[in-house]
User: What shape does this take?
Amino acid sequence: MVKTKSTKVCTAEGGPGESPKSPRKEQHEESSVPADMVLAALETLRREVAQNKKEICATIDSRIETVTENLKKEFSIMKGDTQT
Assistant: This one.
């Protein structure tokens, strides 16, 4: 399908049929304070997720170390049993 000027979906300023002075754009400008609050909340969430990730990774590493040590002990016992 070839688009012509008459089949344009979006204008230069926004969505379908929006004029440059649309209520949606003015509302966005007025709501910059709540947007700042949302951005701050997102940053807090990002930090919390990063901290949770560190804790989870540390727990996994610890459990891997425990399993590895247990396997080494079991293999040593098995090796001793097969040698005798």
In short: The helical segments are 23-30, 32-83. Confidence is low (pLDDT under 50) at residues 1-15.
